[in-house]
User: What shape does this take?
Amino acid sequence: MLGLEMVVVLGVALVACGSLARRYPIAPAVLLVLVGVLVGFVPRLREAHLPPEAVLLLFLPALLYWESLTTSLREIRSNLRVVILSSTALVLATAAAVAWAAHALGMAWGPAWVLGAALAPTDATAVGVLARDLPRRTVTVLRAESLVNDGTALVLYGLAVGVTVGEETLTGWHVTWLLVLSYCGGVLAGGLVGLLSWRVRRWLDDPMLEGITMLVTPFAAFLAAEAIGASGVLAVVACGLFMSQVAPRITGAATRHLVEPFWTLSTTVLSSSLFVLIGLSAQSAFRSLSSTSVREALVYTVVVAAVVIGVRWVWTYTTPYVVRLVDRRPAQRARRVGARQRTVTAVAGFRGAVSLAAVLAVPRTLESGAPFPERDLIVVVACGVIVLTLLQSLLLPSVVRFARLPRDDSVAEEIQLAEVSTLDAAIEALEATALELGTAEKVVERVRRELDVQRRLLGAAGAEGHPLVRHDDQHTSLSLALLARRREALLALRDERRIDDIVLRRVQARLDIEEVRLSRASPSE
Assistant: This one.
């Protein structure tokens, strides 16, 4: 029954926290972490724990794959240097700084490096809370950094754990080989699985089977990379970016209508559940602390959190100036970001699922059979730092206002360009297509009038009070109201037992599609 109780608690928490986040300027992640802490006070519920393997092998591939599918590859290419530096050099610098700080406080070098590597990567799902408030370039860079840096951090983490346990020997060539294998092997494995998935999906014509193939793809990429000792995280990211480019050509409307709502809902539930788990793990870690006092653990937590946040601030306000000294091309000068605007990037160094899974996966014993040194302290400090970095999201509204970010209308402009271009292509092809299909002239005229109305509406977009826009707005409102009457009549037929529930669902699905189409087409949206 414990599992069922946790499902109900998680469901209530997601709904309540989501509602509060819409009403107040608080990131849902912070509220969910607080729920996790509160759940830890209930003796029965505090027994619920998710194995770290489940986070790394089940949660992470699904979350990273969807993030990769919905990230702009064009923006990643445009900011590739920033992404690479942030996901490699910044990870190394953060891990080293945390290890040094923890060692200075009294922790042995091995556990200190384990802690540093676990806390080095930022979290892709936590960065998602920024998407609504920031320009596309900033959000894409932050997402790309958090997608790629997990590979670097997990290689460091594996080395630190292996050396501490006694299974690894640390040499320069060994580290270099592991990094090369992690990156090159991960990208290659992800690309091959993506290519295979693409070929299979081209052959399928059933939306349900294609959706299942899409569901299996990230786990297959992760498994293929792990089988050769490469980074499963990078494999999933590479596979997702590849599929984001080829899938639109092979995926039909019925498949997209089926899989996109599923992925949106499931990844939201998964990521939200992880934040609750973070709060629960933090409370449990402090309660189980035995190797040192709570006071000393709090000192560790505050110092390490300050180092994690401080390194990111130093990085944000030093590397751009170094790059400017090296690259003074006009194209790069035009892309420079002011010091005030970089405060958003500095604050956005959230930690999350990867860090939590890493510290929970630290082995309990060494190769000799002795307990892993200060394991409980590592877990406590990591959980505390994750919570403290997430609390930075409370500052985001103020930071965004301080940054005075330029208005980003590029997405709206490109949407307008896409809609106009695709509609013009349809109008241009109307006569030839009608001739091929043998369409009657009256039907051609009807379609021409409809396309012409859509084209003129696009031309009038943004013009408040335009007669055509006002007319279309009234048409949409009337059509939606009539759809509501049709739905009432449909339910009345079912209640009178003149039609079956199966018929009701099928007809209702068609009405729903029409309602969604009208709602999206409304100028007021």
